[in-house]
Design goal:
Layout lengths: L17 E4 L1 E2 L17 E2 L2 H17 L8 H8 L5 E5 L8 H14 L5 E5 L2 H5 L3 H9 L2 E9 L3 H6 L6 H13 L3 E8 L7 H15 L3 E6 L7 H7 L8 H14 L5 E4 L10 E4 L3 H14 L14
Parallel strand pairs: 1-4, 4-5, 5-6, 6-7, 7-8, 8-9
Antiparallel strand pairs: 2-3, 9-10
Helix pairs in contact: 1-3, 7-8, 8-10, 10-11
Bound molecules: iron/sulfur cluster.
Iron/sulfur cluster binds next to loops.
């Protein structure tokens, strides 16, 4: 079976990037809340990736199209400024290491204007690489990893099938930093439901502090049909938070995490309220914004449900 090009699901900060698929699906397809649950990992052949890079280089330099390259390549390339690449899909860092280096080198050779390459990376993928190997990737411009922490609560990590514990998460974060790669970590508000909310917030704060990432993003749980967590909710066994309870979790995480210098945001479209700033310096202002909304509890102050996105 040929390689199936994945849909584009990107971190908000990568909206200007060109999306280059190396894989489709996710190697850790067991997370019970995630749309990649049960997905089949496909590794794209190196020659196929190089062909796309050739096409991209030809198009950006001379505006020429190659007949055998899918149109989507040109659609994504139209508005591209030549500076950033995002490697798809769910965990492109799983791509075989020598082949990954070959592709990163090829990207730099063919498109020297590239300044930074980013990818989603599971903690498992990161821990599979030595510090030396991660530094090699850094030298080839792989400058940012996006990792789903989801929660720092070990019991919940186990329950959602994340495949790692909080110590693994912290160790993966440490290795990324040591290699000089920026780290962006996401957490999911509401993942523990009503019963697990307080522990989820406090334990996630503990692990965020341990990772001390450059960027941290809060998403709000969206129940996706076809996932085990969705089924649990349908059976009445999972009790989701109300929008205001999810803001209380967010507040607790901002209050209880301690960072050296982290851009913390809830700008993702899944959230009911967008709060952002640098921590620690903007903590008081961010908490003040949340307090104001929590005091009024007026749904009109929140993003309406129909505008929330994954
Ligand atoms: S949450 Fe991340 S690791 Fe888990 S299935 Fe989804 S993409 Fe894969």
């Amino acid at each position: 079976m040929g390689f199936t090009r994945p849909n584009i699901i990107r971190p908000p900060s990568e909206w200007k990037s060109y999306f280059l698929p190396l894989t489709s699906g996710c190697s850790n397809n067991t997370c019970t809340f995630c749309g990649y649950y049960g997905s089949k990992l496909q590794i794209r052949p190196v020659d196929d990736v190089k062909r796309e890079i050739d096409a991209l280089a030809l198009f950006t330099r001379r505006g020429m199209w190659l007949g055998d390259v899918p149109e989507v390549v040109y659609a994504v390339a139209q508005g591209w400024n030549g500076k950033r690449i995002f490697l798809q899909d769910g965990d492109a860092l799983v791509y075989p290491f020598p082949a990954l280096k070959e592709i990163l080198q090829y990207l730099s050779d063919k498109l020297p204007s590239i300044e930074r390459i980013g990818t989603y990376a599971t903690p498992q993928d990161i821990l599979r690489r030595s510090s030396h190997e991660l530094k090699e990737l850094r030298e080839l411009k792989l400058g940012i990893f996006y990792t789903g922490l989801e929660t720092g609560d070990d019991e919940l990590l186990d329950k959602i099938g994340k495949g790692v514990n909080s110590d693994d998460m912290i160790e993966a974060g440490r290795r990324v930093k040591e290699a000089g790669i920026s780290s962006s970590v996401t957490v999911i508000l509401g993942l523990g439901g009503v019963e697990g909310s307080q522990r989820h917030a406090l334990e996630t704060s503990r692990v965020l502090t341990g990772i001390d990432p450059d960027y941290a993003g809060a998403l709000t749980l969206t129940l996706v049909p076809g996932t085990p967590l969705y089924d649990e909710w349908q059976r009445g066994d999972f009790h989701p938070l109300t929008p205001f309870q999810s803001l209380e979790e967010l507040k607790s995480m901002i209050e209880n995490s301690s960072f050296t210098d982290c851009f913390f945001s809830s700008m993702h479209a899944s959230n009911y309220l967008s709060v952002r700033g640098r921590l620690p310096q903007d903590r008081a202002r961010m908490l003040g914004e949340l307090d104001k909304v929590l005091a009024k509890r007026d749904p009109a102050l929140l993003r309406p449900e129909f505008l929330r996105g994954l």
